[in-house]
Structure formats: structure tokens, C-alpha cells
Amino acid sequence: MKKLIFRKISKDILVFFTFSTILLGLIVWTLQAINYFDLVVEDGHGIDLYFLFSALNFPKILHRIFPFVFFISLFYIFITYEAKNELNILWLNGITKTQLLNKIILLSIFLFFFQILNGSFLTPASQFKARALLKNSDIDFFTSLIKEQKFINVVKGLTIFINEKNDNGTFTDIFLDDSTKNIPRMIYAKNGVLIDNKKQKVFKLFDGKVINNEKSRINVLEFSQIDFNLRDYSSNTILQPKVQEINTLSLIKCLQLKEKYPDRKVFRCEKGIYKEIKQELLKRLYKPIYLILITIITGLLITSSKSKYNYKKIRNIIFMSVVLVLILSETLLRYSVASKITFVMYLLVPLLMIIFTYILFLRLVKNV
């Protein structure tokens, strides 16, 4: 009978937790996807890449909201059970409050390992894939970005200004400032046309001049036609993978091997980012321990009941306490690698709080 009851409670928590995670995740993802629209509007990438890039950021969102949604799930289930007198049914069936909390702690430990797997492998892999999409894509939305009397700088080192865009798709009075090949040059053309298809992406310029500024010497070349190949240029989008996008094993190898790290083409393992790497590893491998602390603090709800006059006050205190713990986890992580003292503090604080809160729970249960 006890197994069936524990199974039902676990099921209720997981169902509510899963539904809430997906719902909140989609809301956050939608808001974030709006910000990613700059990939299309400013950086010249296509709609298909925009949607795929946004989708690959979903695991990152889930990883961020995981602790908060788990707390809300526990909090909701506990107060709902109390409101419906279902907790009293548990006590009448011989289930103690300590047994119930221990079972929920086991559930949180399972989610603790799941969070580690998600943060260590799934999220970095999806982020790295998203970065690779940007790196391997060309400027496939360039045509719609060109507007008359507007500076276009979606390409690194290249600025384009067009005075007039004609009804037939051609352009008049075109200025290009190109410094992509370490030799500054300016190009002026009276007319031009943009050819943008699968075979080629070329700006055909007619009747103009090329002004090269090499070693303080200015050369002027006139032309009747010149093809400006846009496929040779990359967008302004940051293409180098960030530490958050590198898999956990590579980060660990970087700290161990340091300058001997083999794969520098993918990830620059440098002394200047060692602290950032340590902080990222703590976030992935240790920070999920706060799930256990959140579980125990929320479990303090079952030490009281709605029949007590201060039940609402206790409920509010517990809610605010968990919110403060979530804020504390972020704050301590930020300063965790500032020194050896802050590093030890980051490791010890959640453990000490878990022990203290669990002892507090046992004493409250004993005094009931």
C-alpha cells in the first residue's frame, strides 16, 4: 500500500513538473526567439536557419528553468495535498513525514543526475551545433537587407551604401568600403545589380572606380564592369564557440593538459579563460545539488497543517526562503572561482544548508 501511495505522489509531482517545464520553456523560448530575429534582420541569415538556431537553444532554456520549476511543482503538490486533506490520509496509512520527505529526496537525487547529464552533454552539444550552423551558413538573406540611402554592414569589414534602388531591381550610385583583406579599398559604381541564387551570390558593378590604399599609397583603377563575390565574406555573427558551448570532457582536458590541449581549431584553451572554465564546470556538475536543498526546504511544508493559525505565514516564509536560495546559488557561482576561499565556500554552503535544514525538519516533526 505504501509503495502505491509513494508511486502516486511521485507521479503527480513528475506530471506537473513535466507539463510546467514544457509550458514555461516554450514561453521563454518564444520570448528569446524574438531576440534571435536579429540573425535575420541584422546579420543576413535566412529564415530556415533562424528557426533551427532557435530550436537548438531549447535545451539551454530547460536547464536554466529546471530548479525553479521543480520547486514550484513540489510547492504546488504539497499545498494541494494539504488543502484536500490527502496528507492526513498518508499519516493514517502509517506513512511518517520523514518517510515521505526521504522518498521525495530520492526523486530529487534522480533529477539531480538528470540535470547534470543535460548540463554536461545535451545543452553544450545543442549550443555547439547552433554555433556551427552560423559558421557554415552564408549571407542568404542579403538581398532584402539592401535598402536605399542606408549603410549595410552585415559583413565583417565591409560597408555598403546605395543611393537609389530602381524599380527593375538595379541600383544607382553604389559605394563600398572594403577592409576585409587587410588592404583598405573603396569602390564606387554608377550602376549595379545583385545576383543572388544557389549558383552564385555576386554584386555586378558597372562604370566605376576602385581606390586602393596600400602602405599610404593610393591607387585609382577605373572599370566598366567588376564582379564583387559576396560568398567570400562572413557575417558579423560571432562564430568562435563560447565556453558554455564546449562539451564537458573537453573543458576538463583543457584544465588538465593546458597548453598541450590538442584541438585548438574547435576550442582555444588559454590561460585567460581557466577561471571561466572552472565556473562553467561547477555550474554543470555541482550546482544541481541545490535541487536537494530545495526539496528539503519545501518539505518543511508538511511539518505544519492548514488547521494551524500560522500555516499561511509558514507557507510564505518557505516560498521566500527557496527563492532566496535560488538567488544565492547564482550569486555564489559568480564568485566561486575568485579565490580559494570563495571556491570552498561554494562547495560547503549547500552541503551545510542541506544538513541544517534536514535536522530542522526532524526536530519539527519530533515536536509535532
First-residue to last-residue Cα separation: 25 Å
> What is the helix fraction of residues, given as a range?
55-70%
Structural class: alpha+beta
Strand arrangement in the largest pleated sheet: 1-2-3-4-5-6
Order of helices and strands: HHHHHHHEEEEEEHHHHH
Helix count, per DSSP? Answer: 12
Radius of gyration, CA atoms, in whole angstroms: 29 Å
Main sheet overview: 6 strands, antiparallel
The average pLDDT score comes to 81
* Sequence stretches where pLDDT stays below 50 over 5 or more residues: none
Shape: elongated
Strand content: 15-25%
Number of strands: 6
Write structural notes for this entry.
This protein has helices at 2-35, 38-41, 47-56, 58-83, 86-92, 97-136, 142-145, 248-257, 274-285, 290-299, 311-334, 340-367; strands at residues 151-155, 158-165, 170-178, 185-196, 201-214, 217-229. It is an alpha+beta fold and 368 residues long. Strands 1-2-3-4-5-6 form a 6-stranded antiparallel β-sheet. The longest helix is centred in the N-terminal third of the chain and has 40 residues, at 97-136.
Summarize the structure.
The chain has 368 residues and is α+β, with helices and mostly antiparallel strands. 57% of the residues lie in helices and 17% in strands.
